[in-house]
Design brief:
Number of helices: 14
Shape: globular
Number of strands: 13
Length: 399
């Protein structure tokens, strides 16, 4: 038993700080570990050596600022995490290791009217197939991140009412999947996971404050404040789609009128163009036609961009993020939509906030949410198992 305040407990705490820093970042140089943890360079060097001897981390030569350095990442066989993303019409699953490497990934269509039980049965089957394909021992699964298109109550884990997956409201997604897979499951809404994915792997790398805007069947925002997802006390932070733009506008699924979503989401936008392009038109098709020069599609996308920009301006005035990342199919429109967003931000946001803001398309496309689910699983897992293996393999060098 370790005595609080003893050398052994201090050593354990330092080990945990280093392992956690590396686990969250994927890989860091020893100098970056020292800056992140506040530990001295000598202490970090000793801990990295111990973790390497115990098989917990791998150290590879690299360069930083033109100088030789050593990159530290968790061992590729230290464990795996799983990401599961449920969307309006798809199920996507990814498996990654603790070094932030994606080992396998697959998606398949999902019937929007399928019950939650059917959806979770499909997820269980796909997870099992991918684990078998990677050849990884199932006992190595450290946790699962799960994304769903709706608000999650922070205290109960219950999925709120959702028109995107009818019949799923009131379910407890994490509990459902945990019972099937037998491992810890952490759940969040798709916009938050999109923000996490872009923060770790995509257009949000290197920033501490950003908003990820996802425009699809609904409209939501994942908010990152000081490097962490902000969910609010009830888990509903980021519902940017329900900012009121016109109190006499169309009735929204939330019951209010003129919400941002009623001017930007696919369910409201596509009917404007279907008379001339047919009932099978999708947002992906609208973007493709706009890029090819279709005037109607270009006009609608520009209008959508201006409306999104109004919502983004509100975010700028309230939270002053340094970056906004646009996700979903709409991001593929590039400057056709980003230009109008910036135009509205410049018109409606406080000038100083607008000047500091960069608006970028997401780098991950449709993978943002499932990679965010991997990041969620990585951030929520504990380090005890990793450290227990290290401490049993190497004698502690007190630091």
């Amino acid at each position: 038993m370790e005595t609080p305040g003893s050398q052994s407990s201090l050593h354990r705490a330092n080990l945990e700080r280093v392992v956690r820093a590396v686990r969250l970042a994927g890989s860091l140089t020893q100098a970056e570990i020292a800056r992140t943890t506040g530990l001295s360079a000598a202490t970090v060097s000793n801990i990295v050596r111990e973790l390497k001897d115990g098989g917990t981390v791998e150290v590879t030569p690299t360069s930083a600022g033109g100088r030789r350095a050593r990159s530290v990442s968790l061992s590729g066989d230290a464990g795996i995490v799983i990401g599961v993303d449920f969307g309006h019409t798809h199920l996507r699953v990814a498996i990654g290791n603790l070094a932030h490497q994606v080992l396998a990934e697959e998606s398949e269509p999902l019937d929007v009217d399928a019950s939650s039980a059917q959806g979770f049965d499909r997820a269980e089957g796909l997870v099992s197939r991918l684990i078998a394909a990677t050849g990884v021992d199932r006992s190595k699964v450290a946790g699962v991140g799960l994304g769903v298109p709706g608000p999650i109550d922070v205290e109960s884990g219950t999925l709120g009412s959702t028109a995107i997956l009818p019949g799923w409201g009131g379910t407890k997604p994490a509990e459902e999947l945990r019972d099937r897979l037998g491992v810890p499951v952490h759940v969040d809404n798709d916009a938050n996971l999109g923000a996490l994915g872009e923060l770790v792997w995509g257009s949000g790398k290197g920033v501490r404050d950003l908003a990820y805007i996802k425009v699809a069947s609904g409209v939501g925002a994942g908010l990152v404040i000081d490097g962490k997802i902000y969910r609010g006390p009830g888990g509903t932070a980021g519902e940017i789609g329900h900012i009121t733009l016109d109190e006499s506008g169309p009735v929204c699924r939330c019951g209010n009128r003129g919400c941002l979503e009623t001017f930007t989401a696919a369910r409201y936008v596509l009917p404007l163009l279907q008379p001339g392009h047919g009932p099978d038109l999708t947002m992906e098709g609208v973007v493709r036609l706009a890029r090819d020069g279709d005037p109607g599609c270009r006009r609608v996308i520009a209008d959508v961009g201006r409306h999104i920009g109004s919502g983004v301006a509100n975010l700028c005035n309230l939270l002053n993020p340094s970056r906004v990342v646009l996700g979903g199919d709409l991001a593929e429109a590039g400057e056709l939509v980003l230009g109008p967003i910036r135009e509205s931000v410049g018109r409606y946001a406080i000038p100083s906030a607008a000047r500091q803001l960069s608006v970028l398309p997401g780098a991950l496309g449709g993978r943002a949410e499932v990679l965010g689910a991997l990041a969620l699983a990585l951030s929520e897992m504990g380090d005890s198992t990793l450290l227990d293996g290290t401490l049993s393999a190497a004698a502690p060098a007190f630091t």
